[in-house]
Design a protein that fits this description.
There is one protein chain. Helix content is 17%, strand content 32%. The protein is α+β, with helices and mostly antiparallel strands and 821 residues long. It has 5 domains: 320 residues, Alpha-Beta Barrel (TIM Barrel); 70 residues; 153 residues, Jelly Rolls; 126 residues, Sandwich (Jelly Rolls); 86 residues, Jelly Rolls, CATH 2.60.120.740. The strands form 9 sheets. An 8-stranded parallel β-barrel has the order 4-5-6-7-8-9-10-11, surrounded by 4 helices. Strands 19, 33, 36, 38, 40 and 42 form a 6-stranded antiparallel beta sheet that branches. It has a 6-stranded antiparallel beta sheet with strand order 31-20-32-37-34-35, with no helix packed on it. β1 and β2 form a beta hairpin. α8 packs parallel to α9. The chain is globular. The structure holds beta-D-galactopyranose.
Length: 821
């Protein structure tokens, strides 16, 4: 009996005593009494693979993050009502445990509406068809589903002891997502009631850590309202006792088919973060820290690309995106120097002219000081005289961090981190010439107008397909009865999108899509025969909409049309209430042609001239797994639009024939001035996405099967398997600091292409000697770096053999090459 009591007490203590207490005030997040500022970064677990997680988490930790933030993706976890999936890359519990093992915290944004450029904003599409449901408002059917799912996730976390209150890594949880942006006026009073219900429901789950709501200025207490954007320094939470939190600092932007590559400079992201902490912020989350890949059909829309690289500090494949990753790492370390003062101190501003501000944090107990000195002018640099504390050069649009208020430890516009440039290589002899076979998509039934069910109206696509497939067939027949006005006609289809292919009497007549996946009108002249004619229309979605008030109700497919035949004298025959026959999906999808296990059933034909540029065609090849550990990509150059599978796993939709516009790219990018997604774009005039990530865990140890479905016509002979490898790296460091170079991923420095200690000019790729330098600079660097994965060099006159020379204001720049060890 005594023993039992002891056991119970010990177990209770284990649950209670090892738990972390997470609370907050306006100056700090307080974890077990320790006053903290938190750097966090978004990594969405289904956008990478389990095998990639440990490395991504470690790189986040090395980058100076304290926490990793993720949404929970309802549609993936509950693909059919009450049938759950938490396997493989959906195993968020394992993801959280790995984060904890690495010593980091988790910020769990359940949503379960998530936006996130994710299909249908993360809602399972079956919700849409529930009788009486209205999403994201005060509707009982919806609220039941939301509560059931949220409770399930919370309970799973509780069971695995994942809340900080139980000794786990989760320090904060989010309910809903940016509802405040769309609530008024669209959802009216019901919206307000809904948000109150969300708060109450969340609180009732007793998770023992604070809940947050982002972009919700009326967040009910005690929920903390937080800010999302490119800059949040002007944000104030709705309760003076709440901490000022930046839940989404957009480090770049997402991409749609046809878009250029977004690029937000390291200088500007650092500026945004530094301004946020200068203005009293205590939590910053990078959205995204690793963007990753929208595998399968998970990309949102319409028209979100398969790559979700986001120009994040870790690129799509998990490589360090330098200098962004390194510049932010140094920023975190610099701000952390002041953590105690920032979280315990008072804050006061002193202005120098209209754009320069000195913000002083002062800890009255210890007398310590910590300062931010900002210059928000978009053009003009400033030199600020702080008298006894020194004189500082603050470039335009930058913030200096002054430790002790008298020592510059960092400036957001002075980048000392290395730049890394990656190259794509085709390195397996066996993969040089892939040998392809093809098979036509079986369309006999649909071209003849035979579907699975019929109706006298034009149906909305997702309601019928429940997003089981991108594809939905609309078929009808038209009897001309010898009417001559119906022979030379124009077929007009009004569709809500996203893509339409039309066939008349089994012959293809044309395809079309609207820009950004909007509604469009398809019009093509057709020649009808006398008697019965078959019209076959194939509508395809390209990612379901994920954002805006009532986005879930935005129709897809031909939905009501109208569809007309327009004859001589503009005489219109309305086909909208004809008898339409319907079919969901492709026959190839039903037969799982993409799955090597079943693809034997298909009669594959060796590639021939006839099969190149052919619409609605399957292609198959095999390739050898590239050696090494570098990330693997498919170069899809030459293909049109479709989906690709490696060993039966979908690597996502491809659409390399969609070319980004040729305007508005420029060779230079000025980091100064407010960022927006069309600033500094790159990749004009090229495919908006040419390369597609094939995670190594999708590959076998030797030979792999690649199967493509091509919808609009392409040439697979240009497709190749490549690896992404680090090529040139460059670094720059000023007198008195340390220059660091690193190749990463098992590569070593093989050549120093340029090194100059002096006053070199130019930038990575085109460095030049300045008016003076130390002649053996390169030799010196070679000695320290050749053959090493990383090296660091003390940048001082002494180490470069100039003795105790002072006031040199020299710097060292290096350009090196990395190679496989
Ligand atoms: C926010 C949203 C995120 C993501 C982001 C843009 O509005 O909360 O989920 O969609 O925009 O990338």
């Amino acid at each position: 009996m005594f023993k039992l009591q002891w056991l119970v007490a010990t177990l209770a203590c284990l649950t209670f005593c090892i738990g972390d207490n997470v609370s907050y005030d306006s100056n700090a997040i307080i974890i077990n009494g320790e006053r903290r500022i938190i750097f966090s970064g978004s990594i969405h677990y289904p956008r990478s693979t389990e095998a990639m997680w440990p490395d991504l988490i470690q790189k986040a930790k090395d980058g100076g993050l304290d926490a990793i933030e993720t949404y929970i993706f309802w549609d993936r976890h509950e693909p059919q009502r009450r049938k759950y999936d938490f396997s493989g890359r959906l195993d968020f519990i394992k993801f959280f445990q790995l984060i904890q093992d690495a010593g980091l915290y988790v910020v769990m944004r359940i949503g379960p509406y998530v936006c996130a450029e994710w299909n249908y904003g993360g809602f399972p599409v079956w919700l849409h068809n529930m009788p009486g449901i209205q999403l994201r408002t005060n509707n009982q059917v919806y609220k039941n589903e939301m509560q059931t799912f949220t409770t399930k996730i919370v309970n799973m976390c509780k069971q695995a002891n994942l809340f900080a209150s139980q000794g786990g890594p989760i320090i904060l949880a989010q309910i809903e997502n940016e509802y405040g942006n769309v609530m008024t006026p669209a959802y009216g009073d019901a919206g307000k009631a809904y948000i109150n219900w969300c708060a109450q429901m969340a609180e009732s789950l007793n998770i023992g850590v604070p809940w947050i709501m982002c972009q919700q200025s009326d967040a009910p207490q005690p929920i903390i309202n937080t800010c999302n954007g490119f800059y949040c320094d002007n944000f104030t939470p709705n309760n003076p006792k709440s901490p000022k939190m930046f839940t989404e600092n957009w480090v770049g932007w997402f991409k749609k088919w046809g878009d250029k590559d977004p690029y937000r400079t390291a200088e500007d992201v650092a500026f945004s973060v530094a301004r946020f902490f200068q203005s009293g912020g205590i939590f910053n989350n990078y959205y995204m820290y690793h963007g990753g890949t929208n595998f399968g059909r998970t990309s949102g829309g319409p028209f979100i690309t398969t790559s979700y690289d986001y120009n994040a500090p870790l690129d799509e494949y998990g490589n360090l995106n330098q200098p962004k990753w390194g510049h932010l790492k140094q920023l975190h370390a610099s701000i952390k120097l002041g953590e105690k003062i920032l979280t315990n101190g008072t804050r006061s501003d002193q202005n120098f002219g209209s754009s320069a501000t000195l913000t002083k944090f002062f800890n009255p107990t210890t007398g310590e000081r910590f300062c931010f000195l900002s210059n928000t002018d978009g053009k003009n640099d400033a030199t600020i005289d702080l008298q006894a504390d020194g004189k500082y050069f603050v470039p335009a649009w930058s913030v200096s961090i002054l430790d002790g208020c008298n020592k510059e430890v960092y400036n957001t516009a002075k980048v000392n981190s290395q730049t890394s440039m990656f190259v794509k290589e085709q390195n397996e002899k066996e993969n040089a010439q892939l040998s392809w076979a093809w098979a036509p998509e079986p369309m006999k039934d649909t071209l003849q107008g035979n579907g699975k069910f019929a109706a006298n109206l034009l149906l909305e696509q997702k309601r019928v397909t429940v997003d089981f497939s991108d594809y939905f067939w609309y078929m009808t027949s038209v009897d001309t009865n010898g009417t001559s006005s119906l022979q030379n006609v124009t077929l007009q289809v009004n569709t809500k999108g996203h893509v339409l292919h039309a066939f008349v009497n089994k012959r293809y007549i044309g395809s079309q899509w609207g820009s950004n996946g909007q509604s469009f009108v398809f019009e093509k002249p057709v020649l009808l025969k006398s008697g019965t004619n078959t019209i076959t229309l194939l509508s395809a979605t390209v990612g379901l909409k994920n954002y805006d008030a009532f986005y879930d109700m935005v129709p897809t497919g031909i939905d009501g049309g109208p569809i007309y035949l327009i004859g001589d004298g503009n005489v219109k025959t309305d086909l909208s209430s004809n008898l339409w026959s319907y079919k969901v999906g492709l026959n190839g999808e039903m037969k799982q042609i993409y799955n090597p296990m079943f693809s034997q059933r298909t009669n594959w034909i060796a590639l021939n001239q006839k099969s190149i540029g052919r619409r609605m065609t399957w292609y198959k090849t095999s390739f050898k797994t590239p050696g090494g550990i570098d990330p693997v990509v498919l170069d899809m150059q030459g293909m049109g639009k479709g989906q690709a599978w490696v060993n039966g796993q979908s690597i996502g939709r491809f659409w390399p024939s969609f070319i980004a516009g040729n305007d508005s790219c420029s060779a230079t990018c000025d980091y100064r001035g407010a960022y927006n997604p069309s600033k500094c774009v790159q990749n004009c005039g090229n495919p908006s996405q040419r390369w597609y990530h094939v995670p190594r865990s999708f590959l076998s140890s030797n030979t792999n099967t690649l199967i493509l479905f091509e919808e609009i016509g392409g040439n697979p002979q240009h497709v190749s398997v490549q690896t992404i490898t680090i090529g040139t790296i460059c670094a720059n460091a000023n007198e008195g600091s340390t220059l660091e170079l690193s190749c990463q991923g098992g590569h070593v420095i093989s050549e120093i292409q340029f090194a100059s200690y002096g006053n070199p000019e130019g930038k990575c790729g085109s460095f030049k000697q300045g008016s003076w330098d130390v002649t053996n600079s390169a030799l010196f660097v070679e000695k320290a770096c050749i053959g090493m994965e990383s090296c660091s060099i003390d940048v001082s006159a002494k180490s470069f053999g100039l003795g105790d020379a002072t006031n040199l204001s020299a710097r060292l720049v290096v350009q090196a090459l990395c190679a496989q060890n």
